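P.,

For your records, the input lines for the assembly:
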Amino acid sequence: MTYLTRDPIVVSALIAEVAAPQCGGTCVFLGTVRDAPQDGGVTGIEYSAYEAMAVAELDRLLAEARKRWPETRLAVRHRLGLVPTEEASIGIAAAAPHRTAAFEACRYVIEEAKKRLPIWKKELRADGTALWVDPAGRPAVVGPEGTP
Amino acid sequence: MTYLTRDPIVVSALIAEVAAPQCGGTCVFLGTVRDAPQDGGVTGIEYSAYEAMAVAELDRLLAEARKRWPETRLAVRHRLGLVPTEEASIGIAAAAPHRTAAFEACRYVIEEAKKRLPIWKKELRADGTALWVDPAGRPAVVGPEGTP
Amino acid sequence: MATGTVQVRFFARYAELAGCETTAVSVAVPATVADVVRQVREAIPGAALLPERPLAAVNMRHVRLDAPVNDGDEVAFLPPVAGG
Amino acid sequence: MATGTVQVRFFARYAELAGCETTAVSVAVPATVADVVRQVREAIPGAALLPERPLAAVNMRHVRLDAPVNDGDEVAFLPPVAGG
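Structure tokens returned:
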């Protein structure tokens, strides 16, 4: 499974990956790089990862989601390298027989991805400066279950 | 706003409609026609609508969603006519500065659409028969707030 | 009592039962949706097969059966909805 | 007491602070992640700028600082994650 890519995320490809005749509901989430005019403008974010661990962690969290929502089909793509403003850094598709499972599984994957994927952002400001994003309020130590 | 279409729903067009530099999260829902092997196979669903009221009702429910999640941008497409198995009958995109609003607004729109849109399905079975879908347990009388 | 003319619309399975998609009925106004239902079930043979308490809309808004109906209103009888 | 060799990896801002992406340290085993942190902060000048209790992974799994570390393990120090 190719979770990590340096190319733009193609939503239709993600959807095609999870499509199945028994699935009546598909939920897709896209996380996009947003501008921050209050910070003088953001032109893009440079994403870097502990790639092997990010893949292992995605394997684990997708396995958890599939156990919790057994009939759900999931696909995830995280982009690395420079992602310009308004383009997607992460795309998740979840298809299930019924929509509740599709929404819940999709939400689970993005929430866990945010907490657990060893991926970092360097924000590129319009003035040419670059800044590591340190998510506010995130504890410095996270245990296997996300507990400090 | 063109909510109703007889053509396939193009997800990328829906996403483009809601994209904005201040939005960091986009949630998309697709409702697709699913096969039902236990019913001898479904080849498609013929959708018909009280079109003017479906448009008015979508105007109303999107206005409600925009009031409840003020910074959320929404787009909806409902397909009419014959929709073959595995193709989408409804597509919803919700983009917001933060993902919680995107997920919640998208979910609100599909739940309300299911309850309120004057749209009907005739299921086309593999054996050539056709059957109006009468959603089980749905009360025959629904008031303006969805109460019987 | 004044008499009003109401445009009635049937959809999906109800149009098949009624054998038509639209009709006009005269009702004593002020009337309610329930009055229109009764009138229609009596006037159109196939409409007697409609439920006594169908889902209804007046001027493109979902309403209860006790909602008022006035001259010129459009009253629609809607089978249980199944969009999406 | 036996001595083990542990591969250490730094990422993102921590790699900038440490001035390198990887290093190897010798620790008395059995050790904990906290032991490796102490060792690294002493051995590498820039690593003294790392937090005393960084987010860490052993063999590509998130662990607490009291997790065991053995000879040949890969220990990674991770700045607060910000994926998605």
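Two observations worth noting. The radius of gyration of chain C is 12 Å. The CA atoms of residues 32 and 67 of chain C lie 5 Å apart.

Regards
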